[in-house]
Design a protein that fits this description.
Jelly Rolls; 2 domains; 9-stranded mixed β-sheet; 5-stranded mixed β-sheet
Length: 408
């Protein structure tokens, strides 16, 4: 693992990196010190401190301006420095002939995950995180999910989702050819595209917590990202499950949606979890239909409890939303009817999001919505919803849900 990391740093940073020469010089000095085969404990400690100082510099650059405008150099630098800090942290403890305690292992694992989340999905850093996680004790057993069968029994639209159904049902197709798929102009549910995924047999909360329960993930806190009290927190996957998933599953099964929605909501949403956890990615496969896009698809995971809601919005790319576990209710509206969806104005952070709660529309305030064409999709395990670019869509989970989306 160390040899792979060092060889991967030979050509880093690239010659055309737009970075101050002093930064490049200091990183080169750090790498020379780290590559030394003989590091005394005091030297290792000083090197780790210097790496953390440079990481702080990179952290500030990562949080300056919009994420997409940050030069990729700073993300790659942050991840490489995280590898060095964690590697040295392990070596220092081993050199002292002391057992690395669980608390220290958790700290080192969190450094790995921050490097992967804020920095770059560096393969060697992901491998180091896997090794650390394997040394930690198993997380407590989770109760079986009782809300998925409940959702399956309520596939009639009025019982399955808040608010009345106004539109027609999305058509289902079984493994259409690439040529057929390429001609699609409106949403369809594609069946059979995920049958070969190991995830279809493996993925449940027990599997996820056994393999990755101590890993740090970004969680959206709040019912909707349009709410004033919405925010994000980093926490272990096991904490996310115990704080948000298990209580809402129990409430949904025992008392129904209204009781569930009164509880705090957390959602692992629009996160590149498969980059962070490469072993999890091997349970899935990129659908062939994504080859119709430009380049590699953007792959995100959406893991959460019952009755998470994504407000009505539109995306610039086509989307294939693949449902592995649980059920979702999706309302869709054509891109040509944007005026009827009353979008937030351009230049705003929420541009591309509708101002309407489409489940309970206020037609006095938004009268044009009354004439909007609506399509309804009830999405279950093993089904993939194709959403053409620009189509407005509102998503509500009807049970705890594990989904993977491919924007292509």
């Amino acid at each position: 693992l160390l040899a792979d990391f060092l060889s991967g740093c030979v050509d880093f940073p690239p010659a055309d990196a737009d970075v101050a020469p002093l930064v490049l010089y200091e990183f080169g000095r750090l790498m020379d010190r780290f590559a030394s085969t003989e590091l005394r404990p005091d030297e290792a400690e000083n090197l780790a401190a210097d790496c953390r100082s440079m990481q702080e510099l990179a952290w500030h650059r990562l949080h300056t301006g919009h994420w997409k405008d940050v030069p990729v150099f700073w993300r790659r630098l942050y991840a490489r420095l995280a590898f060095i800090v964690v590697w040295l942290g392990q070596q220092q403890r081993q050199a002292a002939d002391s057992q690395v305690g669980d608390e220290r292992l958790h700290e080192l694992l969190a450094v790995c995950d921050r490097g992967l989340l804020l920095g770059h999905p560096l393969a060697q850093l992901a491998g180091l995180a896997d090794r650390l996680h394997a040394r930690l004790p198993a997380v407590p057993a989770c109760p079986p999910c009782r809300c998925c069968p409940l959702a399956e029994a309520t596939r009639d639209w009025p019982a399955a989702s808040a608010g009345p159904a106004r539109g027609r049902t999305v058509v289902r197709l079984t493994r259409p050819s690439l040529e057929e798929f390429g001609r699609l102009k409106e949403p369809v549910i594609v069946c059979g595209v995920m049958d070969h995924w190991p995830a279809m047999q493996r993925w449940d909360w027990r599997y996820l917590l056994d393999r990755w329960g101590h890993r740090t993930v970004p969680i959206e806190i709040g019912s909707r990202y349009t709410d004033d009290d919405w925010g994000q927190q980093l926490m272990p996957l096991s904490e996310f499950f115990s704080r948000f998933v298990a209580p809402r599953c129990a409430a949904a099964a025992d008392s129904g949606p209204k009781a569930c929605e009164r509880l705090p909501c957390g959602y692992l949403a629009q996160h590149g979890l498969l980059d962070q956890l490469p072993d999890l990615a091997s349970d899935t496969d990129v659908p062939d239909y994504c080859c119709l896009g430009d380049g590699e698809p953007d792959v995100n995971c959406w893991f959460g409890p019952p009755h998470t809601v994504s407000p009505c919005h539109q995306d610039p790319k086509p989307n294939l939303l693949c449902q592995v576990r649980g059920f979702k209710a999706v309302r869709l509206y054509p891109a040509e009817q944007s005026d009827r969806l009353y979008p937030v104005g351009g230049g705003h952070l929420l541009a591309g999001t509708s101002r309407i709660d489409v489940e309970r529309p206020d037609l006095a305030e938004f009268p044009l919505f009354d004439g909007a064409d609506e399509l309804l999709a009830l999405l279950g395990p093993g089904e993939a919803l194709f959403i053409p670019a620009g189509w407005w869509h509102h998503v509500r989970s009807l049970s705890c849900s594990l989904s993977v989306s491919f924007w292509f």
